[in-house]
# Entry
Amino acid sequence: MNRIEKARISDVPQIHELINYFADKGEMLARPLSEIYENIRDYFVVRQGERVIACAALHVMWSDLAEIKSVAVAAGSQRQGLGDRLAAACLDEAKRLGIPTVFCLTYKPAFFERHGFSQLDKMELPHKVWGECYRCPKFPNCDEVALICHLEA
# Structure
């Protein structure tokens, strides 16, 4: 079974390629290479040999809030539970860090609902989550679904 590991700096080009493959299909938002480098410590990956076949990130926003983002599994590696395992790793890390609330913005809400997330109006999210949105080409007409998960202490 492929292990979930923290990403290495050498993984960045492959993470970028994986995320932007799905972004080009309109299934998630693109991430610039520089942003992935800056936030490499947020990322978990699954490798097949030296090839990154899946990734996800947990980005800490504040003392009580984190975001799961950039969940992507290579087309040939889907339907094996890798995305579920990555989401679980992100939630486990949030618990370990003592962060009680995790949110996401996604085009695939059913995936996150399987992990205990529930939908909410984007306007209910704290203003601090919108810092990244100003750079998005879809701003202010965001068509992603907001979900939130309250973790047990």
In short: The longest strand covers residues 51-62. The chain has four helices and seven strands. Residues 4-150 form a domain with the Aminopeptidase fold (CATH 3.40.630.30). Helices lie at 12-24, 33-38, 82-97, 109-113.
